[in-house]
Backbone:
């Protein structure tokens, strides 16, 4: 019995041991594949300690646990729906519908235990959440989700995710996702200790092909103890990326310059009418821009209250409203103040300065001194990549809008009757009057048009600047600069002036800094005006001399 | 211009009419209550700073109201005198003179920018007034007539940098600020501090922008580039109020999230966030000594009463408001201790006065005329409030003269006898020597 029993018992133990080893080796993968329920009680307990270190550890464990519940728990934590009870050590998930589910058992819970609190999240935990949900989503059936997951894993560069990444890579069929996964894997390999040189150099090549700033960050994380060959490969790749980024950065500066130029154009184009065409030094011009921004705010508030579905169209609705409102205010100012002061530049300057203060304080009294929130519609948020340029939709639309306003204004002056009358009155007031043009009325309309244009500029500027009573102040000087530089009385001059000032500013800024850049620009413009007092595009003729 | 002043006068007039109505209504009040104590309020109600300072004017009026309801001070009613210096620095000095010489106020609560404080200093010295200054500032000052209830750099900037180093593992720093004295001095202190912690010069990028800067594309792109060096990067922002909205909008647009490059701001509070959609900003940080979201009974009580007074149940509270409240309560306590409003008695009486702050502790006026404060680090939440992620365990005593700056490291301030000096040099043993 003994002689038979011993070997069999030994055999049993041996088999058991082998089985355990095999099981240990197979279990994680089997669990991922079959969705069996591994034990997650340790990470769950860690979630109840209210310590960031424990929460972070719990997330790492959950991501690799292979538990089907893990994704739900991580998602709940990301949305702030994960609760815990310090008393009962229970972790609860608040469902989006408002119910409560026990995270350990998956069973619904009728009522939260007293003292239940949300699990706290800070930036470190948010990064861990991103990494964990990335790792978990690598096996998501939706390729778009997998693509997102791959880039999340790449950003996190967590070595622990490598096995999950390898498993996902082996199964991946989608070419796009596959290359993203390869990239993520390469990013992790570059910084990982103990990777063979050949693998690391291959990884450097993969990452280097990306050619963007993220790739630079990865390449610079090559460990200090890497072999010279690896370091040289990384240096080469970095130098290559930096060369191409330097070229792209010129393009980027031009883009930023055009974008700043279009903002300047929008702010100045109304002034090009009131100052450029009529010769009125209108210090209240900035306040017209400010009023336009507040009109946008009011329109958005009304839409939010009465018809939230229209929110994406709020800016389009605000444009005509702002034009009419500020245009009307402009006509009012012209009729009540400015028409008595034609030909007296200094008095006009002081009077309009006074009007600008009155308007500012009126808005401050009506809306309060603090900033008002003007929301961005969906189609104006976010950015897209064009090569290595990151182009934001908001800026793009402002450029398009500025060009549209410019063309529309040019067409109005060239092609409409009122435009013709405006030009006639500007060129020779008495002759125009003798031809039967009501010059008074044309003056009012011209001032109204300039103010209205300033108003719609306000709609656009509400998207990039503070909507506060001081909004106009920051644009008035730049506006005058553009109009004087471009040439008084010439819309094309305003366009070229705005664009060249914008681009020059953005070209100077990286070298001189924002403060010095602005000063340098001012000096350049002053010198230029000394040389050409009438600006870039000077009007010629007798009308100007008089 | 004249309409601005008449507006201010109207406000003051209304406040006085209110006080008068109270006095008439209180028939049972003894005859001594007919005597009043005037309290000056020197905050801009128009111009660029109105955005921040108007709230502080309301806070002082609210505190006066509360104090009068509780029986006033020394049995006398408080009467607020509000003037509007209109964000105009020389006008601050004129208005301060008006308050002290003409109105004969017992105390002034006022100023926001350092330049306005420097502008009124000679007036307060000459006419021996008391000024309570409620805003976080660059330090390097201690005056007999001024009590600083905002944070000195070591009560805000340095703990914030420590938090980022320890909790986020930040190795590379962008110090971005508006181009004036507070950011420049704070950044000088921070630069020296970071270098003392072993941060290399090439890992620090310093950037200044003009007031009201609105085109942040280049700078945000530079920050992104600076942050792609393979080391964890953070931005320490001393960007002033108005320029913050376009800065944060640009960060959101260029896709820089708090998990990539966190921004910790020293001038952005609940009030500033009221003008921004905060969803893209979740996780960016601010360091203050008070947040509206601090969950203690004192704060809940204050918010409730404040909203009742201002008749707006959405009105936010912020750090300079708390500093104003602390300053006001300290002054009341010191006047009651001294038994008079005479500045020569009240100024020494203020030292050592301790009042509850709104974060569940006590703040004490120290001999350097600065107060002890806890430091809180908050992360922006999607509702425009802050989630407090770190609070210093104890109170921090202000270092009015920074130990990290060459010119000030040997200086101390102590306004008790026998020293009675705001810049005593411990090396030379002389007062007034830099």
Residues:
């Amino acid at each position: 019995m003994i002689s038979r029993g011993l070997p069999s018992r030994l055999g049993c133990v041996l088999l058991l041991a082998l089985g355990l080893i095999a099981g240990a080796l197979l279990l994680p993968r089997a669990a991922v594949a079959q969705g069996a329920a591994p034990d997650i009680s340790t990470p769950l307990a860690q979630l109840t300690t209210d310590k960031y270190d424990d929460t972070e550890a719990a997330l790492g464990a959950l991501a690799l646990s292979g538990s089907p519940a893990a994704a739900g728990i991580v998602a709940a934590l990301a949305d702030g729906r994960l609760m815990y009870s310090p008393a009962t050590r229970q972790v609860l998930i608040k469902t989006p519908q408002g119910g409560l589910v026990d995270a350990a058992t998956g069973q619904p819970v009728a009522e939260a235990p007293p003292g239940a609190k949300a699990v706290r999240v800070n930036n470190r935990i948010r990064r861990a959440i991103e990494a964990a949900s990335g790792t978990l989503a690598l096996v998501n059936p939706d390729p778009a989700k997998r693509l997102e997951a791959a880039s999340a894993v790449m950003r996190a560069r967590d070595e622990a995710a490598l096995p999950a990444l390898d498993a996902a890579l082996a199964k991946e069929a989608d070419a796009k996702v596959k290359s993203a996964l390869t990239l993520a894997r390469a990013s992790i390999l570059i910084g990982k200790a103990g990777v063979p040189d050949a693998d690391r150099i291959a990884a450097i090549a993969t990452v280097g092909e990306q050619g963007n700033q993220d790739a630079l960050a990865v390449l610079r994380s090559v460990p200090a103890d890497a072999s010279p060959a690896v370091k040289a490969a990384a240096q080469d790749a970095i130098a290559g990326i930096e060369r191409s980024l330097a070229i792209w950065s010129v393009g980027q500066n031009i883009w930023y310059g055009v974008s700043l130029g279009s903002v300047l154009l929008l702010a100045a184009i109304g002034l090009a009418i009131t100052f450029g065409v009529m010769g009125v030094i209108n210090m209240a011009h900035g306040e017209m821009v400010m009023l336009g921004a507040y009109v946008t705010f009011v329109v958005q508030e009304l839409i939010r209250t009465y018809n939230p579905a229209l929110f994406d169209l709020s800016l389009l609705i605000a444009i005509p409203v702002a034009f009419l409102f500020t245009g009307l205010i402009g006509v009012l100012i012209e009729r009540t103040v400015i028409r008595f002061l034609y030909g007296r530049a200094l008095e006009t300057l002081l009077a309009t300065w006074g009007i600008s203060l009155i308007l500012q304080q009126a808005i401050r009294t009506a809306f309060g001194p603090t900033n008002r929130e003007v929301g961005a519609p969906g189609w104006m948020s976010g950015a897209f990549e064009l090569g290595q340029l990151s182009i934001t939709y908001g800026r793009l639309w402002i450029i398009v809008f500025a060009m549209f306003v410019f063309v529309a204004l040019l067409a109005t002056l060239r092609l409409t009757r009122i435009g013709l009358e405006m030009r006639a009155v500007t060129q020779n007031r008495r002759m125009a009057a003798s031809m039967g043009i009501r010059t008074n009325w044309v003056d009012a309309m011209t001032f109204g048009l300039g103010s209205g244009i300033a108003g719609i500029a306000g709609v656009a500027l509400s998207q990039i600047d503070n909507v506060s009573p001081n909004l106009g102040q920051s644009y008035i000087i730049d506006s005058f600069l553009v109009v004087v530089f471009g040439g008084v009385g010439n819309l094309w001059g305003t366009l070229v002036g705005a664009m060249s000032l914008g681009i020059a500013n953005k070209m100077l800024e990286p070298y001189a800094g924002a403060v010095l850049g602005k000063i340098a620009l001012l000096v350049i413009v002053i010198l230029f005006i000394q040389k050409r007092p009438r600006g870039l595009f000077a009007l010629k003729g007798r009308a100007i001399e008089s | 211009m004249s309409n601005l002043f008449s507006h201010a006068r109207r406000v003051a007039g209304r406040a006085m009419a209110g006080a008068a109505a109270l006095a008439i209504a209180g028939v049972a009040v003894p005859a001594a209550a007919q005597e009043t104590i005037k309290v000056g309020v020197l905050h801009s109600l128009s111009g660029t700073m109105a955005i921040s300072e108007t709230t502080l004017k309301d806070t002082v009026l609210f505190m006066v109201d509360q104090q009068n309801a509780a029986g006033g001070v020394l049995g006398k009613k408080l009467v607020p005198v509000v003037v509007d210096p209109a964000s105009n620095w020389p006008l601050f000095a004129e208005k301060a003179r008006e308050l002290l010489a003409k109105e004969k106020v017992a105390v002034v609560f006022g100023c926001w920018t350092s330049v306005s404080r420097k502008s009124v200093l000679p007036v307060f010295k000459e006419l021996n007034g008391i000024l309570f200054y409620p805003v976080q500032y660059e330090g390097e000052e201690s005056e007999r007539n001024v009590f600083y209830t905002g944070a000195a750099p070591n009560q805000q900037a340095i703990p914030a940098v420590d938090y980022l180093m320890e909790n986020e593992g930040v190795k590379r720093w962008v110090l971005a600020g508006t181009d004036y004295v507070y950011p420049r001095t704070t950044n000088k202190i921070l630069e020296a501090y970071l270098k003392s912690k072993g941060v290399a010069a090439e890992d620090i990028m310093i950037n200044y922008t003009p007031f009201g800067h609105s085109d942040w594309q280049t700078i945000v792109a530079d920050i992104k580039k600076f942050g792609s060096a393979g080391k964890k990067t953070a931005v320490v922002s001393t960007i002033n109020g108005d320029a913050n909205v376009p800065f944060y909008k640009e960060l959101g647009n260029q896709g820089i999230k708090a998990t990539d490059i966190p921004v910790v701001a020293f001038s952005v509070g609940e009030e500033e966030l009221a003008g921004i959609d905060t969803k893209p900003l979740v996780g960016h940080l601010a360091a203050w000594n008070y947040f509206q979201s601090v969950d203690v009974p004192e704060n809940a009580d204050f918010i409730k009463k404040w909203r009742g007074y201002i008749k707006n149940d959405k009105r936010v509270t912020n750090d300079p408001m708390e500093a104003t409240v602390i300053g006001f309560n300290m002054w009341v306590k010191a006047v009651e201790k001294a038994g008079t409003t005479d500045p020569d008695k009240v100024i020494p009486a203020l030292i050592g006065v301790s009042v509850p702050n709104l974060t569940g502790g006590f703040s004490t006026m120290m001999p350097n005329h600065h107060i002890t404060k806890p430091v809180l680090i908050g992360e922006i939440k999607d509702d425009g409030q802050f989630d407090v992620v770190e609070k210093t365990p104890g109170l921090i005593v202000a270092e009015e003269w920074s130990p990290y700056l060459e010119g000030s490291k040997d200086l101390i301030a102590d306004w008790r006898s026998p020293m009675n000096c705001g810049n005593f040099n411990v090396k030379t043993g002389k007062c007034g020597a830099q």
About this structure: Chain B touches chain A through 58 residues (CB under 8 Å). Chain B has two domains: 2-152+296-364, 154-294+376-391. The domain at 2-152+296-364 of chain B is CATH 3.40.50.2300 (Rossmann fold). Residues 1-33 of chain B have pLDDT under 50 and may be disordered.
